[in-house]
Amino acid sequence: MAYKVKLGISARHIHLSLGDFEKLFGLGAVLHPVKALRQPGQYASEERVDIFTSTGAIHGLRILGPVRQQTQIELAPADARKIGLNPPVRDSGDLAGTPGVTIAGPQGQVVISEGVIIASRHIHLDTATAAELKVKDKDLVKARIKGKRCVVFEDVLIRVRDDFMSEMHIDTDEGNACLAENEEMVEVILSAARQY
């Protein structure tokens, strides 16, 4: 059985905790949304930060809102190599044992001891759709992107929540490798589903 979802290609970005955000931008500062993302309540903000390691820097890293419980940076492998990091591929929020960096904002700096990941390719589904498709949160499936450089991605993580909109996320390295475009339709190969 196949099911199609829209593709979202995620550029490098950062999610900040409230405490880290206020250290970087000042007490009482707020994020200013510039673009709503497909997942409800999520947005790209006007604010950006710089991140540093001992061997490199990335400037102008976009903050995605709203604030989170823990600061998390999502990079493509090429971004990570540029600053001398080799972060693991992880599900969002699974940050134990990941590399840290120094983050600089207009009002200060924050050093995080962990928080940099390469995000697992994943598909957001609402609870009703997941039940209809007979998949569960943390299942793994395959997904086919057709086009000039057709590819089948394996180990695509299913994420299920009541308010999710159906969408697959990959990073810019993955998107560039298969010449994919934002919002093109991706075929989910459900017959390959297995537990994470």
TrEMBL record:
<keyword id="KW-0808">Transferase</keyword>
<dbReference type="GO" id="GO:0046872">
    <property type="term" value="F:metal ion binding"/>
</dbReference>
<protein>
    <recommendedName>
        <fullName>Phosphate propanoyltransferase</fullName>
        <ecNumber>2.3.1.222</ecNumber>
    </recommendedName>
</protein>
<dbReference type="GO" id="GO:0051144">
    <property type="term" value="P:1,2-propanediol catabolic process"/>
</dbReference>
<comment type="function">
    <text>Involved in 1,2-propanediol (1,2-PD) degradation by catalyzing the conversion of propanoyl-CoA to propanoyl-phosphate.</text>
</comment>
<dbReference type="InterPro" id="IPR008300">
    <property type="entry name" value="PTAC"/>
</dbReference>
<comment type="similarity">
    <text>Belongs to the PduL family.</text>
</comment>
<dbReference type="Pfam" id="PF06130">
    <property type="entry name" value="PTAC"/>
</dbReference>
<keyword id="KW-0479">Metal-binding</keyword>
<dbReference type="GO" id="GO:0016747">
    <property type="term" value="F:acyltransferase activity, transferring groups other than amino-acyl groups"/>
</dbReference>
<keyword id="KW-0862">Zinc</keyword>
<comment type="pathway">
    <text>Polyol metabolism; 1,2-propanediol degradation.</text>
</comment>
<keyword id="KW-0012">Acyltransferase</keyword>
